[in-house]
Structures are given as structure tokens and as C-alpha cells.
Amino acid sequence: MTGRLAIVGLGPGASELTTPLATATLAAATDLVGYGPYLARVPEKSGQIRHASDNREELARANQALALAASGRVVAVVSSGDPGVFAMASAVFEAIETGKPEWRDIDISVVPGVSAMLAAAARIGAPLGHDFCVMSLSDNLKPWDLVLKRLEAAASADFIIVLYNPASKARPWQLGQALARIGRHRAGTTPVIFARAVSQPDESIDITTLADADPARADMRTLVIVGSSATRRVECGGRPVVYTLRHAELVEL
Amino acid sequence: MTGRLAIVGLGPGASELTTPLATATLAAATDLVGYGPYLARVPEKSGQIRHASDNREELARANQALALAASGRVVAVVSSGDPGVFAMASAVFEAIETGKPEWRDIDISVVPGVSAMLAAAARIGAPLGHDFCVMSLSDNLKPWDLVLKRLEAAASADFIIVLYNPASKARPWQLGQALARIGRHRAGTTPVIFARAVSQPDESIDITTLADADPARADMRTLVIVGSSATRRVECGGRPVVYTLRHAELVEL
């Protein structure tokens, strides 16, 4: 008997940003698989089994989830934000392609969620109001030269740039290099946002500029958004707001 | 007396993908402002006033909403998907910056939603599983040369590329040019997804390749996703799935 597997996005943190489909899918599962702190955000349900892991070894976690589903269980793999953006969905499909042939018969679904970047952008205004690029700064899974090439391309074409995984204890130097690379093409006054733990109790959001951005402000739970030439900071309702104009011009910097 | 204004993302279509925060914010509003078909997705509520408009004139709609809020109303501006991604949030902040000084005192919030691209990606697998760019192909608000420059940059740096507004009756030629430009840097076998009306009753999703992609398949309600060199198509649970590997290499095409 073959079970089912859903890869579920919880949204950024607050339960009011978790979709009804995600809530229902989690409630219907016999087994939850995921990083411990994400599982902790799912309401307890009697009889449901939780398989917590650390936040590395995504492929091992995917294999575990698929093995459970293949044995007939109804499995939900839990991601924060959206499961398709630097999260578990890609790992599960990779595990299917490289794993046991019978895993291809499992009924798989992906339940989207409000991603961290959308939640961060909403909190601060509308910085993603025009063309943007989304990148992970981690070089665990790609060469740093590729990261630099993509930063260069995104900056030179005046995209707004969203940086996931900007820093970790093992990679404290990357964000500084990345911001310097972007700075070759963009004014020092360009708004930069450090958004940490958006919609969670310890949320913190800093608005600064490319010239003043301190890479040490970022950690694993931080998302960094660097504006384009059309991104503006205004005061609104007594607080600073960052948004990007819907109009754009061809600029050379 | 000054009211409040929230810019609310409904998600892609299905109510099970609308967040509880969006639902609660809409229910608390005295006035709803938005494009008619989006307003039609909000449950009727006695006493609530609906101000429907067509899908152009975003700035006029934003001005109307701000004038209502300034007069003491509790206004929700309704967007499909996420309000910050090629939707109403940016227009509202632009209207505040260029509008009446007292509008800056209005309490403004943005309620994020599951964007069309996240919903489309979830439906098809995990095509956004690595670095990606998001662009509008419309040249209503930017020169076509800038669109081409950004396409060139995104394609040459091997980003996955998401195209909003790929075509309209007035712009039937742009998607063909865009795909040709991307094709300078990417193999003809690259997966391309046409996702229309995701999670709505008339949803349709086609998976094709860059060589076979027919621009005429796209209309105003279609989102196009072009894979990177690491995007793969596999069969899974009896259906085709597209996902992008979490690993990437520096490739030259």
C-alpha cells in the first residue's frame, strides 16, 4: 500500500499567515517530518507522529519521508515560508529521482505558503514592486564564483535583489563581498532592508542604505533586500516605508 | 478622523490559499477597493461598500482608496496573489508620496499572500528550487530595451526566470522575443511552464520546452516559468513534475 506525501509551507511564522490548505493538510497527516523548530509551530494532534531533525541533511530527511509514504503513511514534510523557495520541495523531488523506483508512484503534492520574502516586503512597504532576483548566498551547493556572477548580472541590470541565507557562523564573510559587488552598480543611498524572523515574536527589521549596511547584522534567520535604482524610502503613518516605483528607466551606473 | 488602509493579497484564487489574516482584514473593512473580478472573490458582507474598477488606472484606484481612508473609512485594497508583486501595494505608496500631505498620516498595512508564481511552482513541482528572477514583460511602465537587458542578464547568469504579464492583446509579440533572447543562453530542452489561472476553476498548466514553447499559449492570466540549466522534468505519481536541483555549477552556454 502506498501512502501520500505533501510538502507543506507554514508561512513565515505567525499562524494567521498559514493558509487553510496547509492547516488542513497538516491535520490530515499521520506523520510530520521536518526541522524541529518548524514542527514546533504545528499544533499538537493526538496519534500523529513527529520526526524532527536538524536543519541540514535535507536529502536524508526527504528519503525518510518518502520511505514513510511508501509504507502507507500519510506524510507531511514541513517547511517554513514556501516549500519551493530554498526549502524542502526540491530535495524531495531529487530524492524521488535518485531513490527507489517505487517512490515514483507516491502521490506527491506541494502546498505553497507565504514566503519569507513576501512577508518581509509587506512589513516594510513594497520593495518588490518591480523586477527582482532571489538568490541564496550559501555556497554549500554552488561555487562562490557562480554567486558572484549572478550578483553581478542582477546588479548590472538594476534588479531588486533578495538574499536568502546571507550569513551563517561558517560563512560570515559572504554578505560583505556580495554587498560590495552590488555596490559597483548601485548608489550608496540605495535602500537595504535586514528582515529577521518576520511575523515571529522576535521579529526585527532594519532599514539602512547600501553605504551603511553592516553585514554583521545578518544571521541565518535574516533576509536581506537590496533596492534597485527605483526603490525609495518615505515616511508613512509615522514609520519609514520602502517601496519600488512601478515605472523604470534604463539606467547605467 | 483618519481611517485605515490595508492592501490585501487574496492568494492565487482558491479560498483555501487565502490566509486567515487576509480573510479577517477583509471582513473588518467598511470599504473594498479593487479590480472587479478580484472583489468578486471576497465573500459578501452586509453594509460593506464595494468600489469596483477595471484593471488599469492603478494610481487612480490608489488615490480613491486613500481618499476614503482619509475620510475615516476602514479600507481594504484587494489584490490577487501577493499585493507587493506586480500588484497594488507599490501604486498605493506612490499615491501617498505624490498625493495629499495628510495621506501620510493614514495607518497603512500590507497583508501578504501566496503569489501566483509560488502557487504555479507548487502545482508543477519545485521549479523555483534555486536562484530565480521575476520580471514583468509589460512595457507599459518601462522601456522594452530594459526588459531585454534584464532578460539577457538573467539568462546569461543561469537564473530560473518567471515572467509576469507575458502577453496581452496589445502586446502579442513580446513573449516570442523574450523566449528567443533567453534561448541565446539556454538549451532548447530547457523546461518551460505555462501556468494559467492557478487554483481557479479554469486552471490550465502546460509543460513544454524552450524549443517548443508557443508564445501564443500565453495571455494576461498566464505566468511563464523558464527553467535554468539545473531544471529537470521527471515523471512522478503518473504526472510530469518539473523541479530545479539545489546544486548548481558555473556553466557557459
Please give a structural write-up:
The structure is a homodimer of 253-residue chains. Helices cover 27% and strands 27% of the residues of chain A. By secondary structure, chain A is an alpha/beta fold. In chain A, helix 3 (58-70) packs across helix 4 (88-98). The first copy, chain A, is globular and about 60 Å long. The interface between A and B is large, with 83 and 83 residues.
Summarize the structure.
Two copies of one chain form a homodimer. The first copy, chain A, has 253 residues and is an alpha/beta fold.
Largest sheet of chain A: 5 strands, parallel
Most extensive chain-chain interface: A-B, 83 and 83 residues
Radius of gyration of chain A: 20 Å
Distance between the termini of chain A: 60 Å
- Pick out the low-confidence regions of chain A: none
| Number of helical elements of chain A | 7
Q: What multimeric state do the chains show?
A: homodimer
Arrangement of strands in the largest sheet of chain A: 3-2-4-1-5
Share in β-strands of chain A: 25-35%
Number of strands of chain A: 13
Structural class of chain A: alpha/beta
How do the SSEs of chain A run, as a string of H and E? EHEHEHEHEHEEHEHEEEEE
> How much is the average pLDDT of chain A?
94
Helix proportion range of chain A: 25-40%
Key descriptive features of the protein:
homodimer, 253 residues, alpha/beta, five-stranded parallel sheet, five-stranded mixed sheet
Write the layout of secondary structure elements.
The structure is a homodimer of 253-residue chains.
Chain A: E1 4-9, H1 20-28, E2 31-35, H2 36-39, E3 49-53, H3 58-70, E4 74-79, H4 88-98, E5 107-111, H5 116-124, E6 125-126, E7 132-136, H6 144-156, E8 160-164, H7 174-183, E9 191-196, E10 204-209, E11 222-226, E12 231-236, E13 239-244
